[in-house]
Fold this protein.
Amino acid sequence: MEFSITGGLIVALGGIFPAFAIAAIGYKAMESIGRNPESSSRILPAMLLGMAFAEAIAIYSLILAFTK
Amino acid sequence: MVSLESEIIFSVFGAKITNTIIATIFVDAILIFLTFYIKRNISVIPGKIQNMAEALIAYFYDLTKQIAEKYTSVIFPWFASFFIFIFAANIMALLPGFGTLGFFHVIDGHKEFVPVLRGATSDFNTTLALATVSLGATHILAIKYNGIIGYIKKFVSFNPILLFVGILELVSEFTKLISLSFRLFGNIYAGEVVLVTISSLAAFIAPIPFLLLESIVALVQALVFAMLTMVFMSILIKPHHAEGGE
């Protein structure tokens, strides 16, 4: 198994801010579900959509890391 | 390590057939068979498979109705087709035999393993094709429902600020293409690399949580692709002056 330092750095740096973004989305979603439990069926799809957008940025850096 | 590009198995009259093409045909065959099976046994009192299909379709139809009120009957088939195909293609990559059954090929003096079947969406060509079809359908539907003049009015305008916004929206259409294809490809391909790595370290009990994770990722990524397609379609089809009314 060979390791590549460039690839590791790319995905490590590229994953910091998406991780914070996903955490912020989840935090607000959980808080609003806790305040109003019967709206959870409307909040959940929107939360998943937002998380997929935020995670896509981390995926871009992952693909670049795979090519190194 | 799974290679980034899919491996060519054989050629037919010059067209190269890769292992992901074989997997796509396999997924198509199963979906078509399921369609004809449900259609043949359709009845007023539903059996189990028909019940499940009806629940799924009803849930997605309500979801589409909330976002695209008037154009639901146009947008919903695209949403459901993308979701069903991508979910089936994603989850079949987890079946035993995908990525493991194959033969050895000698390239540059060392042996490479070439699997005969590989998950259809773990090839960037497949996801790029899906994203292109989604974007093409969105724009063609927008032209069909707004006319050429109404469609062009969304992007160019005589007001300089709106012209700038129009250019930005044009650029953002291309980023939609890249982001849709890369999101799906990256998730499924990275999941496959993780599964191959874990299975090469400890083949028997350790891959189970990763298989569970990959099943969830398969469902969520299919849902995200289909929902984004639906949202983009409803945004582009809605007539331009309706937003200026508030």
